[in-house]
């Protein structure tokens, strides 16, 4: 099995580190026999460049093709990300801007005026989204990190998308707990999603 671990968090270099990455690392430990490749978006200047009027002509290059090839050759994609200002971190958005390409990872399909797509990635892939957020999930209904990432992968042909959300980490119940304590409190949730993922 080939696993691609995509990591992003503004907290990667903070004193306490990134909770989402630590959860991802716990999950990775369950795949001792897998070939694992890690992509730390925050440490790569390539993912700091945004798609805009000034970069459009050079944004899609040989490396974007290699990122798409990497997705095609991967069996399981594990993305760990916190929620930042109600959405995904900017470097993760930049990653998706690189790999979501018409004619390479999807083609448009229109049916009676309704938009759709045909995913062009190789079949039989799975995705696990690990998301942490300071507020409980039901506080801000417009927050859509899971939906955005899941929808993006569905659009390019990955239908088996699973999610693990550890929320409320900034509430009084959890604010004084260590990352290790939070992970232990969510162990059943982690085991449950792994059981579904490995069926």
Strand order of the largest sheet: 2-1-3-6-7
Question: How many beta-strand segments?
Answer: 7
Radius of gyration: 17 Å
What's the rounded overall pLDDT mean? 94
N-C termini distance:
14 Å
Biggest sheet features: 5 strands, parallel
Shape: globular
Number of helices: 7
Measured by DSSP, the beta-strand proportion falls in 15-25%
What would you call the structural class?
alpha/beta
Which spans have pLDDT < 50 for at least 5 consecutive residues? none
The secondary-structure element order is EHEHHEHEEEHEHH
Q: What is the share of helical residues?
A: 25-40%
Describe the 3D structure.
- There is one protein chain.
- With 199 residues, this protein is an alpha/beta fold.
- Helix content is 32%, strand content 21%.
- The protein has 7 helices and 7 strands, in the order E-H-E-H-H-E-H-E-E-E-H-E-H-H.
- The longest helix has 11 residues.
- The two termini are 14 Å apart.
- The model has no long low-confidence stretch (mean pLDDT 94).
Name some characteristics of this structure:
7 helices; 199 residues; five-stranded parallel beta sheet
Secondary structure blueprint with pairings:
Layout (H helix, E strand, L loop, with lengths): L1 E6 L11 H10 L6 E6 L15 H4 L2 H11 L3 E7 L7 H10 L6 E3 L8 E3 L6 E8 L11 H11 L4 E8 L11 H7 L1 H11 L2
Parallel strand pairs: 1-2, 1-3, 3-6, 6-7
Antiparallel strand pairs: 4-5
């Amino acid at each position: 099995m080939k696993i691609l671990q995509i990591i992003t968090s503004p907290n990667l270099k903070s004193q306490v580190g990134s909770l989402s990455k630590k959860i991802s690392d716990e999950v990775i430990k369950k795949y001792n026999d897998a070939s694992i490749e890690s992509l730390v978006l925050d440490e790569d200047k390539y993912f700091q460049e945004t798609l805009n009027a000034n970069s459009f002509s050079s944004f899609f290059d040989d490396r974007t093709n290699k990122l798409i090839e990497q997705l095609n050759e991967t069996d399981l994609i594990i993305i760990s990300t916190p929620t930042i200002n109600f959405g995904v971190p900017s470097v993760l958005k930049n990653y998706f801007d690189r790999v979501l390409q018409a004619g390479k990872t999807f083609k448009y399909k229109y049916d009676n005026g309704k938009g759709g797509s045909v995913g062009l990635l190789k079949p039989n892939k799975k995705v696990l989204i690990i998301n942490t957020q300071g507020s409980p999930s039901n506080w801000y209904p417009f927050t859509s990190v899971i939906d955005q990432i899941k929808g993006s992968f569905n659009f390019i042909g990955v239908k088996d998308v699973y999610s693990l959300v550890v929320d409320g980490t900034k509430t009084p119940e959890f604010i004084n707990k260590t990352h290790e304590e939070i992970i232990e409190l969510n162990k059943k949730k982690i085991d449950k999603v792994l059981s579904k993922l490995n069926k």
